[in-house]
Amino acid sequence: MSIVELRQYTLRPGARDTLIELFEREFVTGQRSVGITVGGRFRDLDDPNRFVWLRMFPDMASRRRSLDAFYTGPVWRKHRDAANATMTDSDDVLLLRGPGFTPPPGTREVLATICHRPEESAFAAYAARHLNPAHALHRTEHAENDYPRLPVRTGEDVRVWFGPAEPPPWPAASLRLEPVTAVLPSGGRA
């Protein structure tokens, strides 16, 4: 299990492709170089001004060190103004514990389900019946955010899972997401 950030950015109208191009070109490798695992990156299919992504860390101490290295490092310093110019809000962040998630190659649509304050025994029965390891079930990480420069939502207890693009049988809020497929300069795929 990892520490996972589910990050949901609200962007200026028409700026999503600009951010995605910059993100894929600079920020994926920039974060990986300081020990951050960058997971799924998505376009919100119901909101053209939203970009959703995940990043993972082995533990909270690694998170703090890696975030500090990235946000004080050369990649962020060089490109932060361009990235920030695309956003109106980057503070919608859930701090989770789970396996992380990257969609399998060729996936066209993913449903990310966010279940707020589930009754534990009912949810455990639901999860045993409907979820499998491929759903990458996550739960709130209640550790204190030790990198306050980047806010996270607090006071919430959630379960988050990923799956096929169909309505889940559990009543919860869902995000319909299209995976970002990056084409690298070498012609390869990320």
Provide structural commentary.
- This protein is α+β, with helices and mostly antiparallel strands and 190 residues long.
- It has one domain: Alpha-Beta Plaits (2-Layer Sandwich), CATH 3.30.70.
- The protein is 27% helix and 32% strand.
- The chain is built from four helices and eight strands, in the order βαββααββαβββ.
- It has helices at 16-32, 60-71, 74-84, 120-130, and strands at residues 2-11, 37-44, 50-57, 87-98, 110-116, 138-140, 158-163, 173-179.
- Strands 1-3-2-8-5-7-6-4 form an eight-stranded antiparallel beta barrel.
- A hairpin with a 5-residue loop joins β2 and β3.
- α1 (16-32) packs antiparallel against α3 (74-84).
- It is globular and about 50 Å long.
CA-CA gap between termini: 23 Å
- The level of helicity is 25-40%
Helix count, per DSSP?
4
Order of helices and strands: EHEEHHEEHEEE
Question: What is the CA-atom radius of gyration, in angstroms?
Answer: 16 Å
| CATH third-level topology | Alpha-Beta Plaits
- Number of strand segments: 8
Gross geometry: globular
> What share of residues are in beta strands?
25-35%
Number of domains: 1
Would you state the CATH class? Answer: Alpha Beta
Uncertain ranges: 182-190
Average per-residue pLDDT, rounded, comes to: 91
**Class inferred from helices and paired strands:** alpha+beta
Main β-sheet description: 8 strands, antiparallel, barrel
